[in-house]
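Cross-posting from the chemistry board since nobody answered there.

I work mostly on the small-molecule side, so proteins are not my area. We synthesized magnesium ion and want a rough idea of how it might sit in this target. Sequence and SMILES are below. Is it possible to get a predicted 3D structure of the two together?
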Amino acid sequence: MTKTNLITGFLGSGKTTTIRHLLANKPQHERWAVLVNEFGEIGIDGALLADSGAVLKEIPGGCMCCVNGLPMQVGLNMLLQQAKPNRLLIEPTGLGHPKQILALLTQETYAGWIDLQATVCLLDARQLSQSRYQQNENFRDQLAAADIIIANKMDTWQPQDTQALEEWQAQYGDQRPVYRIEQGRMDIALLEQPRINHAVLPDAQHHHPHAQTQGLAALRLPENARWRRALNHGQGYTSCGWIFDGETRFDTVGMMEWIRLAPVERAKAVVRIPEGRLLINRQGQDLSIETQAIAPLDSRIELIHHGEADWNALQSSLLNIRLS
Ligand SMILES: Nc1nc2c(ncn2[C@@H]2O[C@H](COP(=O)(O)OP(=O)(O)OP(=O)(O)O)[C@@H](O)[C@H]2O)c(=O)[nH]1
Ligand SMILES: [Mg+2]
């Protein structure tokens, strides 16, 4: 049986950062796998987790109603049967609703395969006092479905955020533990906690058409194409992602500035630069940048915003920071 944890949390709360931390601290003799589903069509979290020593399966372009279908099950079955991992960590999209995925994991089919342990929900306490998050059904349901709450990004909180967290815990905590951490550094032993919370969640709203979803096809470039873009929308959010061929290189400083200044809520990129690879991850003002000497096979960029953004204008400036 594969011990399995769902790692939930709203967009940019620190799920991938936490999974990277957990993988870096896993028992050496154990094989771990990660199943990651992103809202954006161009998968980037996979690249962020690539060197972490885990067996990785990415399912891009979705929200729960879609991933609960075939791609999710195929990905899950492949991981369980081929990799036979000791532990599986599942990162659903930050805009996902946990009900469907918990229903899938507790299906009879998986009874002999999956030992479902604690569901861990990442929370950025700053979001508790913003009505846009408070009123978001996914944000609330992710917290309601959790066994363990990990309040991340402590370094960024003001006294009113700590107070909002304490108030939230008193009102909705339901005796569940809330741990305060930074940079996803949660105690790995918490994963062993049992799943005890069987909160009855409402069904997710299913009215979010995927007009331009390209699914797995977005991961590949058509023959002879230098780049393509893919859009997704749902739950009041839109995403625009670009994938560029392995020959395309970007100006390093230009790319960092483009990501920093893009007028969107969430931005991620793994791109080829003259020095090798540039990884940029931005949620609001939280920004992390890494460079690595090994060049990536292609370049991927993903932006996510609540409501519409001027993707064409962003695309024009992006195309201008390519090096010839
Ligand atoms: N200041 C600060 N930034 C953090 C912390 N933890 C994560 N971040 C940053 O927050 C951003 C989002 O982190 P991710 O781990 O990618 O978040 P995620 O929940 O996986 O995001 P999605 O998969 O897009 O929903 C990144 O820029 C991280 O570097 C923290 O403790 N403090
Ligand atoms: Mg992530």
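Reply from a structural biologist on the board:
Welcome over. Reading the output above for you: Residues 70-83 form the longest helix (14 residues). Residues 15-16, 45, 91 surround magnesium ion (ligand 2) (CB under 6 Å). Happy to explain the token format if needed.
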